[in-house]
Amino acid sequence: MREGFHKGNNIILTGFMGSGKTTVGIRLSYKWKKPFLDTDQLIERREGRRISEIFAAEGEEYFRGLETGLLEELAEGLHHHILSVGGGTPLREENRRLLSRMGTVVYLRVQPGTVYERLKGDTTRPLLQGPEPLARITELLDQRKDLYEKGADLIVDVDGMEMEEILEKIIRWIDFSRSTIPMNEQR
Predict the structure, then answer these.
(1) Residue 133 belongs to what domain range?
(2) Residue 25 lies in a domain
(3) Does some domain include residue 185?
(4) Cβ neighbours of residue 33 under 8 Å, at least 6 residues apart?
(5) Residue 53 lies in a domain
(6) Domain count for the chain
(7) Contact between 96 and 34 (Cβ < 8 Å)
(8) What's the pLDDT score for residue 107?
(9) Which end of the chain is less enclosed by CB atoms within 10 A, N or C?
(10) Is the predicted pLDDT of residue 3 greater than 60, yes or no?
(11) Quick one: how far is CA 71 from the chain centroid?
């Protein structure tokens, strides 16, 4: 986890697929009356096709390039938003730097069994299509764990937590962090 509080004014939710980024993001946007954006949804709209179709036709590397391009664009002018990013977005160091510049990064940490229960039967997740999805989830989480943590200002373990508990933890931490920084360091 990164040291200190963040200089940006967006709240960015990261984490593995099925961790609740979009749901938490929508709820935070209502509570704080800030607009919500989901990078996966933005990419799908721009491309005119689902992420699974992009992966199938162009491959993962092409999709990751789309993510980076979108983040570069958003980093130039996105302010006072709640942003949910795709599960693989923090894998690139460049993306972690962009996210850090854009705002406070909250990592919603989730266990493999929870992801499996939430996503079993979901055929829209290209990285989970295969004979043993739970093993694949575990493998991917193990590979990504350190990168998620490295890019986060706050880590919230979401397993077994009610939505209100998750929201309250994020809100309390951000309010506390902002109140402990000298005003000239806040943006």
Answers:
(1) 10-179
(2) yes
(3) no
(4) none
(5) yes
(6) 1
(7) no
(8) 97
(9) C
(10) no
(11) 12
